Amino acid sequence: MSITQAPAATPHPEEIIDLTHPTDKYLRTDMLPHIWCPGCGLGIVLTAYLKALDDAGIPENNRAVVSGIGCTGRASSYLKMDAYHTTHGRAIAFATGLKLSNPDLSVTVLSGDGDLFAIGGNHFIHAARRNMDLKVICVNNFNYGMTGGQGGPTTPHEAKTSTTPYGCAEYPFNLCALAASCGAVYVARWTALDTRRLRSSIAEALKKKGFSFIEVIAPCPTSYGRPNQIGSGVDEMRFYRGHWHLAEENIFLEDAEAPHKVDIGLRTDITVGKFLDVEKPTFLESYNDVVMKKVKGK
Amino acid sequence: MSRPAVLTGTHFMDGDTAAVEGALAAGCRFFAGYPITPATEIAERMAERLPEIGGKYIQMEDEIASMAAILGASCGGAKSMTATSGPGFSLMMENIGLGAMMEVPCVVVDVQRGGPSTGLPTLVGQQDMMQARWGSHGDYTIVAYTPSSPQEMFDVVIRAFNTAEKYRVPVLIMTDEGVGHMTEKVVIPTGDKIPVFNRKEPTCPPVEYYPYRADKDLVPPMGIAGKGYKVRMTGLTHDERGRPATNAKAQDVLVKRLRDKIMNNVSEICEVEERWTEDADVIVVSYGVTSRCVLRSVERARKEGIKAGHLRLITVWPFPEERVKQLSLRVKGFVVPEINLGQMVREVERVSKVPVISVSNAGGMLPDEETTYHAIRKLSATQGG
Asked: What's the domain range around A111?
């Protein structure tokens, strides 16, 4: 066997290419590798969020993230910003206090569908009703991934999970319709395939005042793809591509039936888009207007 | 005219109102709550008073959210409080545990009524005393005060905030419907006479900051959101950097520190008030509204020549066990009247070397004066001491 040594003059690849990822500066790299499975959509969401923070021009020291429990809940521990990993379902309530104590903060709640809409459903609907100035990004993988793939409030009818072995007998929440009906001022849905749209949508929400909700449909090959014969993470992305349907902007305002048309079922089309974008005074604006003005006038 | 934060002067107010004024005087600027009898007056007063001094009040959707919101507000730099009664206190347990684990200073007022469940919404109880100590899951250590008058409510709430800030721990005010709805004279001093302690914050450059690296006092300086420290907090077992570290070794270090930062300072934290204990043969141990009526039983015994004394707990948790132990070496016994079927009496029994009699009722009324008196007499007639 003859072994040829590369010429010493050739630079090592690391000397040519900057091996740091553009978002590394916002990550706690001491935490890597992360805990998420191969094929999971969470990395895409995290990257989109970090890039969107820059796009929106949110000052570094004003960035705060609050998460609950679950796979998405673990995201906060990887982010180099003020990051709070709270109790199951309570991220929005915690974030409400955080935002009110320091209104300069741009507070994003990053959590999963089970956390935000099963155990945390009450906090979601009330924060939306108050138009609390929070950005809520829900990574919806249709199941409880962290605990091994149980069914939850977003599991499609007849989908299989470890607790719905014969298929899910319940009907799922339509998260975007729920958010809009409760008073959110910005409602959008994307899939993990829509990396650019997701990034610009998050940036748009970050720049906007009020309760903004972005649902991201993300693959969970380990716990959802496998029992439902969708396949790997890439297969699930291929499924999105084949069943992807982009709605017109602000369709919730234009068409009263629209919220019902964006339901997600097992193997149905997935409608994405910015469904709603309206203006309304936030909780704090209203508090200042209704309460503080009168107190000062006393 | 908006009123100032410290409402200096002599007032006629109830315990619930005094709790609010004490909180504002201590620097509380955020309140999140949910209406519940007999604690509602606290929320109502906060809704009126906080805007006057630039603070924020929010009524949350439930007590779970209220507790979570005050933790969030504290992490954002505001001294924060919530108030509730039994059913709401049960709901708060989850995030009281989070507060203990993440080390978030805050104050929770429980105006106790009769339980279990919906129980006696408008009537007095002291049945959440053990829940205050053990209610959230896992081993954790908190501090709890039990004022026995509106004036003491004002004073103790200020100390509760100071303790919370100093040790980075949720502090409970385990009051009761009796004190909460009792109206008496409350004297509020000028602001300069009120000692206020603020949490220590990091002074090192942000890159050197580890959110859970404790100082010698076992308390880590608290980074506030928005100040550039990029604080990382989690309810998971974590290391000094705030990184999740779910292993037995990290658990041992963290949970023991959470205990020791309080238990190493019991002598500083614990407060009791004693009357006629120097020569006492029998000591009545009580707390909260109960202390006021049992005093009559003690006085009656004294008048009849029985050497009775009174030990009033102002801090119930940590339990002032050293003092009870000392006293037990020179008395014949203790009488413990409570508005429950015997909760704090277990603590007295645990440390006492002499007999202990529990005077209890199921809730809704004050302890019977006669029964307490007879318990004192019975113990005084025994040999020993």
From this structure: 31-297
